Amino acid sequence: MTSENKPVAESTTGADAIDVAIAQGIDFDGSPIPEAKLNLYNQVMGLEAGRQRSGVSNTMRSRIVRIGAKHIAQDELNQMLTQADFAPLKEKEIAFYYGGK
After folding, report:
1. Is this model's pTM higher than 0.90 or not?
2. From CA 51, how far away is CA 16, in angstroms rounded?
3. Which Pfam family is one of those matched by this entry (predicted)?
4. Under a CB-based contact definition with an 8 Å cutoff, are residues 71 and 46 in contact?
């Protein structure tokens, strides 16, 4: 079966949807992901896989801020972080994710 005939990923929602599509080599519209893009992605992810981690809580907070800023207002996210006993948003995070608003 050629990549042009592979089925489109079953779902385009959720955190795993991208990983499934990448593993299949097929974009959500059914088109093949170019080999050069897949190779570069896999090379960089391989480097990341070998990187020493600083701790689970730090990574959790980073993900919450990075993803939460797309969906949650600044003040609300800041309050949620504080209530969960994470550090509040930093000025550089506010500037980057919220445009310094």
Report:
1. no
2. 21
3. DUF4090
4. no
